[in-house]
Structures are given as C-alpha cells and as structure tokens.
Amino acid sequence: MNKLVMNFLVTEGYVEAAEKFRMESGTHPDIDLATITDRMAVKKAQRLIELIGNGKVEESLEFAQEELAPRAEENQSFLEELERTISLLAFEDTSNCPVGELLDISQRLKTASEVNAAVLTSQSHEKDPKLPSLLKMLIWAQNKLDKKAAYPCINDLSNARLEDPTF
Description:
- By secondary structure, the protein is an all-alpha fold.
- It has helices spanning 2-12, 15-25, 33-45, 47-53, 57-72, 76-86, 105-122, 130-146; strands at 153-154, 162-163.
C-alpha cells in the first residue's frame, strides 16, 4: 500500500509530500525526487504560449525560431502545431481568432499533462499513478459482485474498512 501511495505522489508531482511520506513510512520512490521538481518546472513552462499571451511578439518569434523550429524540421505534426500556435500573433484580439482556444486554461492544462506524461515516459516511469486505477477497479469489481454474492466489501474508500455483508 505504501508503494502505491508513493507512486501516486511521485507521478502527480507532490515532491514535498513524497519526501515526508518517505521519511515517515520508509518507502523509497522509484525515481529521484529531484527530478520531480524539474518535471513540474517543465510542466509549468509552456513558454511560447506564455510569451504570446503576454503580447511579447519579438520574444515569441525568437523563442520559436531558436528553440522550436529545429525540432519541427524532424516532425511534421509538431511543425503544424507550431505554425498554428504562431498564427496567434496575427491577431490583436485572440479571443475571436480561429485558434484562440490555444490560450484557454483547459488547453494549457491538457498540454501540461501531455508534457508531464512524456517526461515520465522518457524516464521509464509510469505516466499515470496506479492508485486511482486500482480504486476504479475495486469499485467495478464490487459492483459486479454485489449482483452475485454477499462478501466483505469497502463502502467508504476514505477509511478502507471492510464491512461485513448484510444477509
């Protein structure tokens, strides 16, 4: 159980909680906790969108040319996304432009999540924590079993206490 909790803390980027949990439980993470801080910094960066959102046209173009364009030469889909993002610069009012959704917070969160998953995968670590999946599986299994048998089950996930079946 401790390994599952540690996996969740590491995967979701809770470095301080992971460190405290390591000290209290003696459970060591599968990954260096310093890399979590780096990963969270990358996840928050999304530099081009931030530059465009702040109206820094020259800095946006310079960053795109120096940092992103070389990568786009090797990847056609990346080039298309870069071109789409740079097109935001053509509009003074980005709320009414055809690609204005790129500046929405929901798009930023989606991008941050994708970056986080890519970094985790590159570090040979799972991109999703195991604990939420296991809890979903537990609920699914209990729902299936409820129709067929009486058994000790966990009705309150926050306590994780087994309750005797009612006959």
